[in-house]
Amino acid sequence: xxxxxxxxxxxxxxxxxxxxxxxxxxxxxxxxxxxxxxxxxxxxxxxxxxxxxxxxxxxxxxxxxxxxxxxxxxxxxxxxxxxxxxxxxxxxxxxxxxxxxxxxxxxxxxxxxxxxxxxxxxxxxxxxxxxxxxxxxxxxxxxxxxxxxxxxxxxxxxxxxxxxxxxxxxxxxxxxxxxxxxxxxxxxxxxxxxxxxxxxxxxxxxxxxxxxxxxxxxxxxxxxxxxxxxxxxxxxxxxxxxxxxxxxxxxxxxxxxxxxxxxxxxxxxxxxxxxxxxxxxxxxxxxxxxxxxxxxxxxxxxxxxxxxxxxxxxxxxxxxxxxxxxxxxxxxx
Length: 333
Known about the structure:
By secondary structure, the protein is mainly alpha-helical. The protein folds into three domains: 86 residues, no CATH class; 79 residues, no CATH class; 148 residues, no CATH class. It is built from 13 helices and no strands. The N terminus is likely disordered.
């Protein structure tokens, strides 16, 4: 290619090639985020590939035939480098819908494995002369198996985020974000429980529900009460508000994601409530509030606290109404 004198850049030239550290940055060509981080180049958030592409096109159409370089700098100072946003900001959450589906399927498997494991242990150590079918109908066995399944799923959630999706900080990836004022959320769970119990008085609630079978003995009531304020709200919030909601929000928007997440939360509890629309509606409202809190605060921990306080209020009320779970027959009066 022949160059005319007018095509040559103005100013003195040097025969010495610049070192990589002294190289002049060229507009329209971005270094990788890693390179920018290492060199300490300033980063302007929100600029992505489109802006870089437009800049590159502009430089390629300059009259000189060269990418715009030295002519773009004033007072001899290099222009601001504007690298693309880090990949982590583009990919939040790190998991996708198929990961959530796989998590659901593995939860079912974990429940089966957990209950069956506890069933065998109970047959071996506690009920050696009872059949497996009889042991499986014991609520304590079911609660223990469910607790074991929750621990297995929690372990897989950690592996999914940190190993499979490359986010070493699990709590940051799921937006745990512990709130500064815990008392506010505890109080919110308490008020939510009282308010929805008042609403339930105006809804058709069956006198007997499948979940009532877990309150036949004080030991069963204690076991379910402890589970309902510890592992159960933690795992439900991790799945629905930690994993499911952000995937739905990214694809469908916040409003639709809030509604679908709350509906899924209600359906999860439907079998315990015979899918009676009155109690299922109450659970749907609980899920709606919890998901709205997640969307507003960007905190899974806030929902966990409200959920624990909600369940804890009900558990304490039942404890008081039955004289410390000693007169469980009062629950059906």
